[in-house]
Amino acid sequence: MVGERAVGLVRELQSAAGGRLPPFRAEELGQTLEEMRTLYERNQADVSEAKSGRTDLIFLIRFRHCCLLRNQRCIVAYLYDRLLRIRALRWEYGSILPNTIQFHMAAEEVEWFNRYKKSLATYMRSVGGEEGLDLTQDIKPPKSLYIEVRCLRDYGEFEIDDGTTVLLKKNSQHFLPRWKCEQLIRQGVLEHILS
Amino acid sequence: MAEAYFPVGPGLGPEENFLSLDDILMSQEKLPGRAESNLPRLAFALGQGSGAGSGDSIPEVTVGGNYNSRQAPRGAVQGGQRRSGAGHAGSARRGRGLRGAERPCFHRRYCEGLRGSKLEIPMWLAKGLHDSKRRLISVELPKIYKEAWRTVFSADANVVDLHKMGPYYYGFGSQLLNFDNPENPEIAQCILQTFINRFRRIMDSSQNAYNEDTSSLVARLDELERALFQAGQKGLNDFQCWEKGQASQITVSSLVQNYGKRKFTEMDG
């Protein structure tokens, strides 16, 4: 059935729950584009025929045109939704993505991510006075400057603002400034403990 | 991840949202229709009729000379299921004036779609072929939007399994209003009334099912209702979290939880 591949891409994306990013289906995308090219070429040939009087081709031309539009819509929606997910990655995960996620992104998407990072950084610098304002921090209103954290897995050395380094080993507990740990907590390295 | 990801939602009423994944899947659902004029190769193109299915099924009329089909016709013509009326199709095609100089793909299965034959077409195709003076196809209502089912809905809307009746009852029904059908006002009224009747139960169940398995509650809901249910659940969970004093706790992003057991190797920044 014409258009099945494109809809298959959309279906897969829709079923990836929680905004997860599935691998980039370059091959199916290429096949869909190939299908669109074929449809277009055949329509080109038929349109000139239809103009010189063969009205029975009109249906076929319209049908192919509908298929072309459908494929276009599916592909555009697929790519756009992936970008929305990648954008969410910057906010949820941070500016450095792990390799496993990067493998799922196409080269152009990585490029887009870098440019988005840069735009965001420029914007954040321009807001909030001299040093700028990190908007990705303090997603939940903070209650205190320092928080108690427990380490969930081995991370290594971690340096705090006043120069002291902390060794983050599994199950060790620390009392650290909130702004340094927030990102590690979101990434699952640390766990915020409420007293 | 879930918090920062805002997908394009489905459209409201008779307009679809172009970029919405939900709307794309909804418009993939099929409707019954009827061919209004001779539509050659339509059934094959739609993947129905004999020999249809996988691979390229783009119909082609070969024009002038040696046109080599890109996809070699798959195997022999399969006997068996042929639409009624296609038996004489070969001669009909020749009768319509394809000269010997042209080399059409002579497969009988192409010649289906004569006037009046029944078809099942996806919504996107129905919408695309419908505008203009309706000389190509005419669409009929799927059975759940017809009179019989409308009375069922008006009797008691809560018992109907809307997920089985096509998982996009409301969205698809709203799209049906695009085709000029004399029953449109009744259809619209029925969809609205069904929603009103079912809403109370959805709201109640989503606001009171905390930390339990909700699969039995959502099993009979269509997609729109499921989205509502999830919104209700999220509100409930957030409130409970606040009540327990955990609102200020920084939590792991759900993306990380989703990637779960896989090991992360971070790149050096």
Number of domains of chain A: 2
Most extensive contact: A-B, 68 and 63 residues
Distance between the termini of chain A: 60 Å
Strand order of the largest sheet of chain A: 4-1-5
- The proportion of strand residues of chain B reads 5-15%
Largest sheet of chain A: 3 strands, antiparallel
CATH topology of the largest domain in chain A: Methane Monooxygenase Hydroxylase, Chain G, domain 1
Number of helices of chain A: 6
Average of the residue pLDDT scores of chain B: 73
Output the helix-strand order of chain B. HEHHEHEHHHHHH
- The side-by-side strand order for the widest beta sheet of chain B comes to 2-1-3
Q: N- to C-terminal separation of chain B?
A: 21 Å
Class from secondary-structure proportions of chain B:
mainly alpha
Family (chain A): Belongs to the GINS1/PSF1 family.
Organism (chain A): Gallus gallus
Protein name (chain A): DNA replication complex GINS protein PSF1
Subunit structure (chain A): Component of the GINS complex.
Summarize the structure in words:
The complex is a heterodimer of chains A (195) and B (269). Chain A has helices at residues 4-15, 26-51, 58-92, 99-103, 107-126, 178-187; strands spanning 146-151, 156-159, 165-168, 173-177, 190-193. With 195 residues, chain A is mostly helical. Chain A folds into two domains: 4-126, Methane Monooxygenase Hydroxylase, Chain G, domain 1; 146-192, 3-Layer(aba) Sandwich (Ribosomal Protein L9, domain 1), CATH 3.40.5. Chain B has 269 residues and is mainly alpha-helical. Chain B is 36% helix and 5% strand. In chain B, strands 2-1-3 form a three-stranded antiparallel β-sheet, covered by helices on one side. In chain B, helix 6 packs antiparallel against helix 7 and helix 7 runs parallel beside helix 9. Chain B is elongated and about 70 Å long. The relative contact order of chain B is 0.13. Mean pLDDT of chain B is 73; it is low at 49-57, 59-111 and 261-269.
